[in-house]
Predict the 3D structure of the following.
Amino acid sequence: MLCLPGNIVSAPGPVLVPTRLQTELVLRCYQETDCDLCVRVAVHLAVRGHWEEPEDEEQFGRAADPDLEEPKNASLQAQVVLSFQAYPTARCVLLEVQVPAALVQPGQSVGSVVFDCFEAAVGAEVRIWSYTQPRYEKELNFTQQLPDCRGLEVQDSIQSCWALPSLSVSADGEDVHLVLDVSEGQRFGLSLYWNQVQGPTKPWWHRNLTGPQTITLNHTDLVPCLCIQVWPLEPDSVRTSICPFTNDSHAHRNLWRVARLQLLPPRGWRLNAPCSLPAEATLCWQAPGGGPCQSLVPPLPRENVTVNKALEFPLLKGHPNLCVQQVSSGEKLQMQECLWSDSLGPLKDDKLLVETRGPQDNRSLCALEPSGCAPLLSTASTRAARLGEQLLQDLQSGQCLQLWDDDLGALWACPMDKYIHQRWALVWLACLLFAAVLFILLLLKKDHVKGWLRFLKEDVRSGGAARGRAALLLYSADDAGFERLVGTLASALCQLPLRVVVDLWSRRELSAQGSLAWFHAQRLQTLQEGGMVVLLFSPGAVALCHEWLQDGTSAPGAHRPHDAFSASLSCVLPDFLQGRAPGRYIGAYFDSLLCPDAVPTLFRAVPVLALPSQLPDFLRTLQGPGATRPGWLRDRVEQVSRALQPALDSCLRPPGTQETGFEMGPEAGDRT
């Protein structure tokens, strides 16, 4: 017969129609250990429709002819079609059903008919349709994923499962091992893929192998949708799949680490990730100098995000201060990216004006401040309130950039640079006057002037291009002695000259901004200026790195409140995982405090140098190519080595021994 449902026709009276499909997995056995998987299908039926009463019977009573009563007392018959598809086979059966007249009650269920059964392959996806001929209602459909050999308790009875490789997953530190129990010499296929909720699966890795085998994966490669499929290399072999990391907390943290926001010109964006993410996106305004990113609800209300799908910003123009935040289902901020910072430059000191439009053309303007939206013309002690009239004039004269506009309101970004310049004009004039007086005093002391000129001449010869190159030092505050050692190294590097940034000298900014915001701003500024980020490894730093690589976060209380190293790992690790670290980062450790093999393998993608034994290479890398002369480098190496030795000896001294030397702490000031 043809498996074609045909068109829907009107029911001439009470008819039987299928209302529900129910399946059951059974075995069809030819011998005790030779069985095939079979799908038993039950079709539940009900009566639809009524007998139509003749018009003359309604007017004059029931007909006297008993032959007219026979259709109402007759049994119902129906032809029910079952269509079964399981790639690569398809099959149709026709079931004839007869229901006694006593059970014919319109709208009532009359029972079910069972077909035993459709054969199907292990692990196949089956689709079942049911309808009547002729068809009075829309056909029923049912889809079911059959279990593979791993999910069947009777796999010993199915011969196709006998040759299937056995797969197990085990963890060993930072590595995950896939162990395949395959007989010696047996060939099989192994595929790793990302199982997508929306769209087809995405293959990641495929190999034809010979057993037995153990496949090693890095712990950072695990994501919740990573699945493993294995099958023997034989014709029409059964494949089995396993997704062992669906509920793994480490895999979920890795997924957020590899997720990336991408700007799609002119106003599109996309969240790229290998798996689906339960996240909401919102637009926010990030002011320079740190602080939280302030949510802008009207332009982009919170909504669920579909990964790997292009989305549109409801904006007129882009701005470097506009950022996108990704918030997980637990209201936890997982990701923030200022998408326009790469194309439009760093954050600007612009003031965001929010225009609200109400009924009858009522409008109000306020300036977005950390405490909220403050009216422009007010007595508040904010910069926007002090410059309220000037900002209104800038808005009316077209000097502000309109970012968003609709019936509810508008957003405007107004530059504040000119007001900052006016404010500092008198300060610069006072500085110039002070410099002139200082120069006159220096001229009165010729000997001091000669020494100053000699130092300036040596500095010019040593390479003016190296002056002011930034170096951001990241370290773990293991103890007070190690902090003094880091402070000594930072002070010595300032004499090269380098612009050294270290959290030890910025405790006030750390307390005001928070460790993560402070590090993000300093890292962005250092890399934009062509500087280097220096990772100083110590036993505490190595322990934190291993903890991040395994758990994705450090334990509460494991580090001091002002320790930027723990906060920085969330930004540093993605650079190493995605290959962006070379040329931007350099590693270092003190050879008397740490074994070189203790540095995690991930960070060896950049030079990791021992101090002070490899101090020449360390200083040469910080200065950059062509920035030093051999004689100059030798003098600076001796200078830094002499400065480091007392502090290094202090770290190696047993506890309780009298210490000498100088203290290095926050009170030393900001050397940057």
Notes: DSSP finds 15 helices and 32 strands in the chain. Confidence is low (pLDDT under 50) at residues 56-70, 461-466, 554-562, 658-672.
